[in-house]
Write a structure and sequence with these properties.
This protein is an alpha/beta fold. The chain has helices at about 95-100, 105-110, 120-125, 125-140, 160-175, 200-215, 235-245, 260-270, 280-290, 300-305, 315-320, 340-350, 355-360, 365-370, 395-400; strands at about 1-5, 20-25, 35-45, 50-55, 65-70, 75, 80, 145-150, 180-185, 220-225, 250-255, 275, 295, 325, 385-390, 405-410, 415.
């Protein structure tokens, strides 16, 4: 056994293992009740995976493990940002000004702004250019303890540009210590060259592009935007039918601006998640509960576009629908790169409890990506992804605004300091 003060950097990925002791844990384990708090906790890891997480007095034999005294700091699972659009070109600061002047999201979109306005800037960039543009956004997330990030395509809107976006997302995982999950979102908007021809766009771009993305190993899930300014349930169903035939899980932007029944449709396909949900109705809630579809709430978009109708949190709770939260980081409607601020927004704007915010940013975020068996909780057998915090209680992670108490981020057993 070799001891180390926590201020010292040591290689925790090699040798017999590493014990993180004298810690306060929020394990988030299912069935633990609440946050799964362990006051006198320890985590033993070997080969990048958790061997033990629990009361230090219950530790198994640790052998020759390096021992790190955490000095009573709190440890949570690494944060999971389960809905982002961080790969894109350009920005939409002018649209921000337009909203301040009174324009609505739909008015901006119908005037040629919105998603389509990001297409030209995105199409102009190579994989390398998109990676370079995304890295500052990704690095900001990692600096707050994020270990897993979902990244969508959807600003290329041509087969090759969509594939380029997905290649860039995959490349980010090679240049940063992070787990990347990709979602194919060609059904995000109709590009100018297909204006008024949604059916042609789906048949000529979205569907064949999905086949190519799957063949090239670029896609982990398929997404769409079901809304009056985007695609109908019938059009989304065509995309989901192909995804199902290819064995790819689905998710959906649904009920953000109106109720088209998108969440109910997604649930009928066993969707991993339905996201936004401000206009979700009782039938949609029931369908999601029956299918085990996670509700991903996105307070950054609600805030940025001055929405008034809140998602039906009470109904989701009562139906037992799992609730996750995410940044929705994108250039137009949620230029947000902070999961900590997202937690505060979810509490302040949507009325989530501290527990729901932390669970939603860890365990339920992992569930929304189909990754709960790998990450999202501090349980034996999972990847050693966790965050060490300089806080006195977990509530501080939700309570503070513009303050980052991260002390260290551990990803697959390797330590990264701020």
């Amino acid at each position: 056994m070799r001891g180390n003060n926590f201020s010292e950097n040591v290689d925790t990925t090699k040798g017999a293992g590493c014990l993180w002791r004298n810690a306060r844990l929020a394990t988030l384990s299912e069935g633990s009740g609440g946050l799964g708090i362990v006051e006198d906790g320890a985590i033993l890891i070997r080969d990048g995976r958790i061997v033990f997480a629990g009361q230090e007095s219950d530790l198994p034999d640790i052998g020759e493990a390096v021992v790190i005294d955490v000095e009573r700091r709190w440890i949570t699972p690494g944060l999971v940002d389960c809905h982002t659009h961080i790969v894109h070109g350009g920005n939409r600061a002018r649209e921000f000004e337009m909203r301040l002047e009174g324009a609505t999201y739909e008015e901006i979109a119908r005037a040629g702004g919105g998603i389509v306005s990001s297409v030209t800037a995105t199409r102009a960039l190579s994989v390398e250019g998109l990676v370079a543009a995304a890295l500052p956004r990704l690095d900001t997330l990692l600096a707050e303890g994020v270990s897993t990030v979902e990244i969508k395509s959807g600003y290329g809107l041509s087969i090759e540009s969509e594939l380029t976006m997905l290649r860039a997302a995959r490349a980010l995982e090679k240049v940063r210590p992070v787990r990347i999950v990709t979602s194919y979102l060609a059904a995000h908007a109709t590009p100018a060259e297909y204006k008024g021809r949604n059916g042609d766009y789906i048949g000529e771009v979205v569907l064949p592009g999905l086949g190519q993305a799957q063949a090239q190993g670029l896609v982990d899930a398929v997404d769409g935007f079901c809304e009056g300014i985007a695609f109908s349930t019938a059009e989304i169903a065509q995309v989901f039918d192909l995804a199902k035939s290819l064995g790819i899980p689905v998710k959906l932007h649904a009920e953000q601006l109106s109720n088209l029944g998108g969440a109910k449709l997604a649930a009928s396909y066993g969707a991993l998640s339905a996201d936004h949900l401000e206009y979700l109705d009782e039938d949609g809630v029931k369908a999601m509960a029956a299918a085990g579809t996670v509700a991903v709430l996105l307070p950054g978009a609600f805030y940025a576009i001055h929405e008034k109708q809140k998602p039906p949190v009470k109904a989701l709770r009562e139906a037992g629908v799992s609730i996750a939260i995410a940044t929705d980081c994108n250039p137009g409607t949620s230029p947000l790169t902070s999961m900590l601020l997202t937690m505060n927004m979810a509490a302040t704007l949507f009325g989530l409890t501290v527990e729901e915010c932390i669970v939603g940013a860890t365990r339920e975020g992992a569930r929304a990506l189909g990754l709960l068996g790998e990450t999202g909780t501090l349980d034996a057998g999972k990847s050693a992804d966790f965050a060490v915090w300089d806080i006195e209680s977990p509530a501080e992670l939700v309570y503070r605004i513009g303050f980052n108490p991260l002390h260290a981020r551990i990803f697959k057993g390797e330590r990264f300091d701020r």
